[in-house]
UniProtKB/TrEMBL annotation:
Residue ranges occupied by any Methyltransferase domain in the UniProt entry: 85-176
Gene Ontology MF: a single term: methyltransferase activity
Origin: domain of life: Eukaryota
Lineage of source species: Eukaryota, Fungi, Fungi incertae sedis, Mucoromycota, Glomeromycotina
Protein name listed in UniProt: 3952_t:CDS:1
Gene3D superfamilies: Vaccinia Virus protein VP39
Classification via SUPFAM superfamilies: S-adenosyl-L-methionine-dependent methyltransferases (SSF53335)
Any single Pfam family the record assigns to this protein: Methyltransf_25
Native source organism of the sequence: Cetraspora pellucida
InterPro entries: Methyltransf_25, SAM-dependent_MTases_sf
Length: 306
């Protein structure tokens, strides 16, 4: 059972009640999955409990791959009473909930188009707000000491990235840090089933103006911004260390689960039958493990000039 407060596909009881009229038009349902209903947002993954569980798994994979939750030199800053942190596209709130527990003196605000984060079982120093990062954010200039954004390449069209970064810099305090982390959508090594499915998803990206290689542009966005300096960048190209195989298996599980969530849309794009699609996903899972395929990842941070 996921940490998010939503009703499950199977209708399991939960803290979050989808039959509440105030909530009901926040979502739409398709092929047994629940999605956001924000008209001008392009994000196409669901937001139900199963997806929240996947996002928690993804969080643990990311933390393991990087061996940390962030790169920016903000540890001291986050230990200061009243430091303010913004997590953009917080998802199930996995990163934010862990960080808020580790840094109890700081205040953590998570924004997302989907209100699927815990309502009341959460650390006191947390708040979740519904907001669309493609629009002006509901915060005053110079509000946050640290702004973190991870895996939004599925939600921010390529052409919108510079204006999103600009809006984040507006709400960042002088001297504060902004950190972005994205993956390369393609794997370093791909078998035939992997290629076929990935090519289908690339078409979905194309339809929405999403940029599957935006991770390689993050550094440039921060370097080109005239209010930022001290830009640092780190790239991961493989699963490091002794746990590589185990991590590869978890990453494969995460990806395969995501492919199941996309089944209805993706099988028509790649013109596969339901059984053929299931078989392709299974084969792709085996290919990812056999080749130890990896999506390169980039994380980058910068400081706002004083
Ligand atoms: C792949 S998840 C990543 C979640 C989280 N950042 C993490 O790393 O665990 C992307 C999240 O971004 C949110 N999102 C997508 N488009 C958005 C937008 N335009 N504004 C705000 N949030 C958005 C989605 O609802 C989803 O929760």
């Amino acid at each position: 059972m996921g940490l998010c407060n939503s009703k499950t596909r199977e209708g399991k009881s939960s803290l979050f009640n989808d039959s509440n009229p105030e909530r009901i038009n926040k979502f739409f349902f398709e092929s047994g999955r629940r999605f956001h209903n924000v008209k001008n947002a392009v994000y196409f993954l669901p937001n139900d409990d199963d997806e929240c569980d996947r996002l928690h798994l993804q969080h643990f994979i990311e933390r393991y791959v990087w061996q940390s939750n962030f790169l920016a030199p903000v540890d001291r800053l986050l230990n200061k009473e009243g430091a303010k942190v913004l997590d953009v596209g917080t998802g199930a709130g996995s990163w934010l909930l862990e960080m808020a527990t580790n840094y109890p003196k700081a205040k953590f605000i998570g924004i997302d188009i989907s209100p699927v984060q815990p309502d009341f079982i959460k650390p006191k120093n947390t708040e979740f707000i519904e907001a669309n990062v493609l629009e002006p954010l509901p915060f005053k200039d110079n509000t946050f000491d640290f702004i973190f954004q991870r895996i939004l390449y599925v939600g921010i069209p390529g052409k919108n990235w510079p204006s999103v970064v600009n809006e984040l810099v507006r709400v960042l305090k002088p001297g504060g840090y902004i950190e972005l982390m994205e993956c390369d959508f393609q794997y370093n090594i791909m078998g035939p089933a992997t290629k076929r499915l990935i090519n289908g998803i690339l078409l979905m990206f194309d339809e929405r103006g999403l940029d599957p290689t935006v991770c390689y542009k993050l550094r440039g966005f921060l370097e080109e911004h005239d209010q930022l300096h001290n830009v640092h960048c780190e790239i991961k190209k493989t699963f490091d260390g002794n746990d590589g195989k185990k991590l590869c298996k978890l990453a494969q599980e995460n990806y395969t689960t995501a492919l199941v969530t996309m089944k209805a849309k993706l099988m028509s794009i790649i013109e596969a039958s339901s059984d053929e699609y299931d078989e392709l996903v299974k084969t792709m899972g085996n290919e990812l493990i056999e080749f130890e395929s990896f999506n390169p990842r980039v994380r980058v941070y910068a400081q706002k000039k004083i």
